[in-house]
Amino acid sequence: MPPTDTTTPPDAAAGAPAEAVTPLMRGIAVLRRLTEADGTLSLSELERATGLARSTVDRVTATLARMGFVRLDGRDAVLTPRVMELGNAYLAALRLPGLLGGHADALADALDESVSLAVPDRDGIRFLHQATRRRAMSLSFRIGDLLPAERTAPGALFAAGWTEEEWARWRERRAADPEHRGFPAVPPRDAARAAAEGDRFEELARQARDQGWALDDQLIEPGLVALAVPVRAPDGSVACAASVVSHTSRHSAASLRDTLLPRLRETVTEMERELRQAETTPREADLPPPAPLAAWTAASKQELGREFIESLARGLTVLTAFGAGRAELTLSAAAEATGLARATARRALITLEHLGYVASEGRVFRLTPRVLALGYPPLSRTSLPRIAAPHLATLAARVHDSASLAVLAGDDIQYTARAATTRVMSVNITTGTRLPAYATALGRVMLAGLPSAERSARLARTERRPLTPRTVTGPAELAAVLDRVAGQGYALVEEELEEGLRSIAVPVRSGTGEVVAAVNVAMHTVRRSAEDCVTDVLPELRATVARIEADLHIAGRFARIPTA
What we know:
By secondary structure, the protein is an alpha+beta fold. About 45% of the residues lie in helices and about 20% in strands.
């Protein structure tokens, strides 16, 4: 059964199938409202935005917190990177970001313009991949953002293949929402201009069908121009649209077309070749064996009591049954992948199909792009410091000393996130501070993580001077220290940066195993001995970094996560 409108799925049980799971619909409503609010709302605001009773909001958010999808921060509910597992399931099943993202990135580098991949979502479009240029004038949207088709170049390409039924649905949506208030990712239109754009859209779709490309000449907002070309699957259908996005300070719509269309078409040809090759490549599932979901929900119910809603947790887990090698699932396969009973999985799938997150054809189900509306847009623009911040705060509270995140910046470290303690005497370093890497625990774990040739080159060019009588500066001695750090997986530095200061640090690794940052706990030497740091602080530090890495790997699977 289709959802009742094109932009926002129904949030209540009205009009739902008899077997629909009402708590699952309520949980999804909360996730949608949090997404539309850029990831954070107070519980009172959620109550007003969803129309749910406060007690229901409390139970839903407690369940989502137990799943790790939200964090309860005082009176606020905050989306966490783990909720991106839902969108990751769709993107992995679709395969397009993994297959085509590298081509989009290379084109963006070659043209020095932003490049996007988008797919249709009923009569709108959603972005799957963004290769952006870092400029003061940013032109990109977030992964998962929904835009009205009539205000985009990809939308005209997709509309070129619409049936009359799809055109009728689009006209119905235009009449119900003439100002595009249902599309939070774009500035609203006054009704007169929206009507004029809508009237012209059918002609733009016909042109896109005839010429094989489409232009957006400031349809989204003044100054923004885009050129899009369809990327076709091996069966000839449009798999997605690749678009180059620029600004009128760099290109007019006409010059964008005249200058960049040949290069964009070359890249699309490469993308289509990639899709043909992938068609003959076996698709291996990337999912672990079925988790003991029943035991986990039972334990959660026992711990939280009536505050934990089992049917909501199970229903959202069904979305993660899909993934690489699991683009389409039968009911039995979905039940097996989640460890749920067939009847439970069936009711969840019926509910998700009603809300528009799952589509069925015959006996198989597949995810739709709407899954990306569940938390993905605001979190696709997160950064490592934002991911680490709540974990650093928890660590600092547990060990009662300050905790920090830093990255390498040339021959220095730069602090990018920090959680301080409220002691009379504590380590006082602010975010943005730079210190020499060779004399800090943070720097040493990052230097130790470099390939040996790069590490040697850095040490050779770095000017090292003794900052205290204990600072290690000799090349051979420092190289031996870094070898030891690499072997033990942590660095302990005592009074080498500043007298009285002791610091212990461990590296933070990306999903590929690369050391991208480090986390430390710093204190005055009178607080703990070196032995106490290793026995008491190091386990807490490692556990914290494991949680940061888990969030980073989820968030960074299909999105670029800046480390600073």
